[in-house]
Amino acid sequence: MTAIDETDTTRAYPKFGAEIMQRRVRVVDLTREIFEGMPMWFGHQKTFINTNQTHEQFRTTYNTHLGFEAHNLLISEHAGTHTDAVFEYDPNGPTIDKSPLEYYYGDAICLDLRSVQYPDYITPAALQSALEASGQEIRKGDIVILYTGYGDATYPNLAYTEKHTGLDRAAALWLAEQGVVNIAVDNVAIDHADDTEFSGHNVCGEYGIVNTEGLANLDQVVNQRFLFFGLPLYIRNGTGSPIRAVAVFDN
Fold it and tell me: In DSSP terms, which residues pair with 210 in a beta bridge?
């Protein structure tokens, strides 16, 4: 098991020692940071964050010894690393609160698609080649993650939303026909930046499956099989949700 670095000042550990934070499994964080000014797909609300109260303001207002700081968030259901409900692209599909959680966790593989870059589309041939190179197989019920490298190369610049590759219709159909329940990617969308037909989302609607977008750190999981967790918030009538996406490996 990998030891925790107690000298790492970017993380906080319990008072009585980092050893209690050791876990039987190894977790890789696949999530992008949420912050005001973050790049967003053009069709969604920009992110705004303000301070509701500081520690001192709370103490002064309520005459307490302990203050509580809190911030207010105005964010899209599709901010940052997020997942979609089928309802987002199919009005007859389930909203996020009515979607089976099994869409959003389970066995996953990550395929290396870095050879496909804008303006090219991801095709069935590219997927087949990446699958063969990975040494993995797609099983019914899998979550398939596409590692293009574009997200890590451009985020958090505006370019992140502009010239990314994506699935053509045939490639999305190829994945759906394999029994995939969640198509994920490290870009702002599973669709190509120039695809105004939104082919990937259309196919997801036709097959009643979901997609997850905005993943990070896929270089740490590429060509591997692992447990993926990208659980949505329980939003009534939600079209999607920000998630904390992780890959879990049993040590």
Answer: 182
28 CA to centre of own chain: 13
Structure letter (DSSP) for residue 122: B
pLDDT band at 251 (very low <50, low <70, confident <90, very high): confident
Residue 71: exposure state from Cβ atoms within 10 A (0-12, 13-18, ≥19): exposed
The Cα 6–Cα 99 span in angstroms is: 40
Cα gap 209→211, rounded to integer Å: 7
Give residue 104's pLDDT band: very low, low, confident or very high (50, 70, 90).
very high
88-96 average pLDDT score: 97
Note whether 190 and 214 are within 8 A (CB).
no
Q: How far apart are CA 171 and CA 155, in angstroms?
A: 25
Q: Indicate the pTM of the whole model.
A: 0.91
| Rounded CA separation 183/171 (Å) | 11
- 11-49 pLDDT per residue, tens: 666 776 666 667 789 999 999 999 999 999 999 999 999
173-190 CB burial, b ≥16 within 10 A, e <16: bbbbeeebbbbbbbbbbb
